[in-house]
Structure formats: structure tokens, C-alpha cells
Amino acid sequence: MHWLDWAAVGAYFLVMLLIGLWSHRRVDDVSDYFTGGGRMPWWLTGISHHMSGYSAAVFVAYAAVAYDYGITVYVWAFLPLALGTGVGAWLFAPRWNRLRERYQVASPLEYLVRRYNLPTQQALAWSGALLKVFDVAAKWASVAVLLKVFTGMSMTNGILLTGVVTLLYCTVGGLWADALTEFGQFVIQGVAALSMMWVVLDRLGGVSGLGTLWHRLPAGHTDPLVGPYTAGFLTAYVVVKLFEYNGGMWNLAQRYMATDSPRSARRSAGLSAALYLVWPAVLLLPAVAAPVLMPHIADPQQTYALMAQSYLPVGLVGLTLAGMFSHTMAMASSDANAISAVVTRDILPAVLPGFREVSTARGLRAARVVTVVFITVSMVVAIEADHFGGVLGIIVGMVAAVMGPISIPMLLGLLPAFRRCGPRAALTSWALGLGGYFFVKYGLDGASQTTVVVTPLVTSLVVYAGLGLLLPEPDAEADAVVAAVSGPEPGSGTAARPVAKRA
């Protein structure tokens, strides 16, 4: 890269670190560190939710799918995000905010002790934390692929560079640093993506060339569903993302908890849904058009990087690389904050009883230490990502498949229709769902990607709802939690009072 490109990347890293240092002054306790003290404006949390929802995998794994199959990547990978987040704006976003407001929780899993019991909370916490290590590892590996193409930097060094910079700013500033850097990243990435789209349209012959592009693409590239991406796969993916993007991915629940009211949380989710509907189409247009402009790319995962190097002027190449960094750093830092919240608020108090009455200073110190450990472990796993199926294998095959068993008890437990589903339903659905995943993934030869994703999801959903219907577990405390998060809106004079936490 030219020195101007390196300057753009260096300036990006410097701005991220300065935001982290500025955010440090806004963090006085664990509530500020994990939920921004409930003071974040809805537009900031909406952009933060959106930026935290996908990473540089868009420019690596998903760009490869766009190069090989065409527009199907937008249909199955991103329309479900818009749909799921839009539905969640009404079903889940206000409930997460009421949890923080009425129970003073700082972790998305903190309420599960009241709603179910301690074993259920711990099962979801431990398994979800382990899953997130692999999820974030896939994101570091994505960035390393891009760095290797742009700069020749080795995969290991690329992972270490991105991880260490992210570690510095998110450890210091908590959720405020995450949200503010994500806003800055959104602006930078927006300039880079629009520049890339502009030069691609120019290569196609201008805006009019966009209309003829679809006739010049290889056969099947304009089909909404093609190859392994079937209607069954799409249906399963929609349901998975409904749970994942409304709280199953814990960092996204934190965005709703960080707003000042349930109404703001709903507006935040609506903004994120609108961005998921529009912005991925802008990001992926170059990769979709690549078979026409660059028809002989040996490794499709390098599609976006090679196009940037070939078409963009000096300076904009570095800005584009920074924009690709932005998605990964946004998701990884927000995941690290969520995992730190779960470990320090849910796991450590259960494992170390003395941690329940920890001081504010010690609690903040523990949160930062956990953040460091999580990012470090995820970087180690990223270096060995190929042993776990590569970037797309981890994101789709592992994360999408295992997300259902972990998130179904957590999300459905907030809804009145499932208030009779107790600890037995939650733990059994979690265990059998994970068991179904391991059976089809490792015990069933030749299982399709659709089968791997569908089996744990359907198993958990059927078991959870079925046990709640056939063997209900009525509980006054669980009913109180569901009633409290279901409304009415604050200011009505009938807000539910917090109840004592179960022993």
C-alpha cells in the first residue's frame, strides 16, 4: 500500500483509541460499563446495534458467496436480519429496556435466576460464552485475510494487530467506547463503501450499467435461492436470526438496555432494521458485480480486497481497509463487553460467593480483566480458525446452529405466552438442542448445511414449547418478571416493583 493508505489506517486506529480514552471518563460503575447507565440516545444505540451485527466477514466470506452465487447472499444472509430486528422492535426491544429499568440488571442473563433458576442461568452463560469465543475468532480471521491481501501481513500478525487495538479501547471505555467508536466506524465505512460502489458503477458504464449488469452475470446469479441456500435453509435462518439479533447475541440486547426508555429501545431497533435492509446491498454490490469485472479470481474470499486495490485511488484503499476493520472491531468489542457482563455479573458470583458483594472499584477491575482474557483467547482460536471450518463454517455452521438452543429460553422467557415454561423446559430444550447439533454435525455422515442449522433450532423450540404446554411449571416470581417487562410504559403509574432475587 501507498504511504497515504497507511496514514489512513493509522489515523483510524488513533481515533478509536482517543474515543476509548474519552469514554473512560463516563464510566463510574458496572452499570456505566455494561449498559451506558441507560443514558444513550436511540439513534446511537441503533447505529451501534447495526454495526455490532456483522463484521469483516461481509467482505471475506459473504463476498465469496456473492462472487460464486450472486444475489442470494443478500436474500438469505441480510433480509432475515432486517425482518428479525423489525419484529424484535415490537416484541423484544422494549422488554430488554424494562429489565434494566425495573430490575437494575447489567447483564442480559442476569434476569434468568428470577425467571427460571440458577442452574438454567449458568448453563446458558457458560455455553454462550464458549460459543462467543469461536464467533469472535471468525471475525479476527476475516480481518487477517484482508490484511494479507492488502499488505502481505501474515494471518497471525493481522489477528494480533486488530485484536490488540480493539482490546485497548473497549477495555478502557466499556459500552460508551463501543457505541461511540461504532458510530465513527459507521461514518468511515460509509465513505469507503460509497466510494467503492461509485468506482464499480463507473466500470460498469455508469448508473445505466447497473440495469444491464443482471443480464451479464453468470447463470443463476440473479436467483434469490441457489446452491446450498434453499428455501428450507432460508426459513431456518430467519428464525435463528430472529432470536440471535434480538438478544440471543447478548451484545445486541445491551444496546436496547442502554437506551433511556422502552420507546427509545423500539426506535433503536427500527433504525437498525432499516439499515440492515439497505446497507448490505451497498456493501455487496461490488462482490456481486465482480464475476463481470474480474472473472478469474482464484480465491473468492479475496474478491473485495482485490477490487479495492485495483480500482480505488491512493488514500481510499487505506480508508476502505479501515472501513473493513470497522465492522470486525465493532462486533468484537461489543461481544467482549457482553461476555464480560455475563462473566462478572452471572458466572463469578455463582462460582465465588464472595464476589456477590464486590465493591464498585473491584467490579470494574474484574470486568476489564475478563475483557482482556476473552479477547486474548478468541485471538488464539482465530489463529487456528481453519481447524473449525474456516470463517463461514464457524459463522453459519456453528454459530447459527447453536444459537437457537441458547437463545430460545432466554428470549421466549420474556413473553407472556410462555410464562408457564419453567426451568425444566428451559434446561431440557437447551440440552436436547445442543445434542441434536452434535448428532447431525459429527454423527450423521453427509448432513446438509440446512439440516445442521435446522435440527438444533427445531428441537429446542419444540421441546421448550411442548414441555411448557404438557408439563407447565407455574411460578409467581416468574409471572412477576414477565408482567414487569411486558408493560405498561413508564409514567403510567402502574409499573411493577422489582422482586427479590431467588437464592
Entry summary:
Helix content is 75%, strand content 0%.
Strand-helix topology:
Elements lengths: L2 H22 L5 H6 L6 H10 L9 H9 L2 H6 L1 H13 L1 H11 L8 H4 L2 H34 L3 H50 L2 H10 L14 H18 L1 H8 L4 H32 L9 H9 L4 H36 L8 H24 L6 H23 L10 H21 L5 H22 L5 H10 L18
Helix pairs in contact: 1-10, 1-16, 3-10, 3-13, 3-14, 4-14, 6-12, 6-14, 7-13, 7-14, 9-10, 9-16, 9-17, 9-18, 9-19, 10-11, 10-14, 10-16, 10-17, 12-13, 12-18, 12-20, 13-16, 16-17, 18-19, 18-20, 19-20
Count the beta strands. 0
Given helix and strand content, the structural type is mainly alpha
Which whole number gives the mean pLDDT? 81
**Alpha-carbon distance between the termini?**
59 Å
How would you describe this structure to a colleague?
The chain is mainly alpha-helical. 75% of the residues lie in helices and 0% in strands. It has helices spanning 3-24, 30-35, 42-51, 61-69, 72-77, 79-91, 93-103, 112-115, 118-151, 155-204, 207-216, 231-248, 250-257, 262-293, 303-311, 316-351, 360-383, 390-412, 423-443, 449-470, 476-485.
Salient structural properties:
mainly alpha; 503 residues; single chain; disordered C terminus; 0% strand
